[in-house]
Amino acid sequence: MSLVKSKQRVADHGEVFTPAWMVDAMLDLVKDESERIDARFLEPACGSGNFIVRILQRKLAAVEIKYGKSDFERRHYALLALMCIYGIELLPDNIVECRTNMLEILAGYLNLDEGDDLYRAASHVLSLNLVHGDALTMLEQDKKPITFAEWGYLGKGKFQRRDFRLDVLTGSSAFSAEGSLFASLGKHEIFTPAKTWPPMTLSELANQEGKQT
Ligand SMILES: C[S@@+](CC[C@H](N)C(=O)[O-])C[C@H]1O[C@@H](n2cnc3c(N)ncnc32)[C@H](O)[C@@H]1O
């Protein structure tokens, strides 16, 4: 695979993709986390997904080992693995490629076709987790503040979603720095979700496909 699309894009956006051997070497530095199904990763300049695709593959290998014997658990934990991966990308073609690449990996692992609820739920999750926007201004393409969905699996087929603004989440690390005026604030006072959703099943998530909420 070429690591550069054009000289102009390198000059304009620093677009040079990371080779697979280097991605793996870097992920090996956080091996345990990269193989933990519910460890959360954010790639703020995700390109077409060289890092996050590999993270997804590592997580899915963990799903297979832990839940490979039960189709129900395997499907739900595979979706949870996807739900825990986030990206931001400035260029429209890259973000589309990135979502496609991630969906292909999940669909290949679970042998899904496009009509499967899980395929549609995953497509919805990817439209939220992989943001077309600017990681520096923390604004989406349409200038709304970037907001990420925090997903959790409650068991028995139900997923939980709470939305957080990225600028609030990143600002909160400065608040809690030692010596800061706000250092004594509890995390609960800082990590207030912008929205909390009722628990949702796979098919409820699938029905959200195409809705940008
Ligand atoms: C060096 S490439 C790396 C891509 C990918 N992480 C990889 O390692 O293959 C940097 C990527 O960041 C994107 N980018 C540049 N400025 C950005 C910004 N302010 N916010 C989000 N993405 C940005 C570029 O379009 C490009 O796809």
From TrEMBL:
GO molecular function: methyltransferase activity
Enzyme class at the top of the EC tree: transferase
Listed InterPro entries: DNA_methylase_A-5, N4_N6_ade-DNA_methylase, SAM-dependent_MTases_sf
Pfam families from the UniProt entry: N6_Mtase
Alphabetized SUPFAM superfamilies for the sequence: S-adenosyl-L-methionine-dependent methyltransferases
Entry's Gene Ontology BP terms: methylation
Alphabetic keyword roster: Methyltransferase, Transferase
Reaction catalyzed: a 2'-deoxyadenosine in DNA + S-adenosyl-L-methionine = an N(6)-methyl-2'-deoxyadenosine in DNA + S-adenosyl-L-homocysteine + H(+)
Chain ranges of the DNA methylase adenine-specific domain: 9-103
Presence of the UniProt keyword Methyltransferase in the record: yes
Domain of life: Bacteria
EC annotation from Swiss-Prot or TrEMBL: 2.1.1.72
Family designation: Belongs to the N(4)/N(6)-methyltransferase family.
Full protein name: site-specific DNA-methyltransferase (adenine-specific)
Species of origin: Uliginosibacterium sediminicola
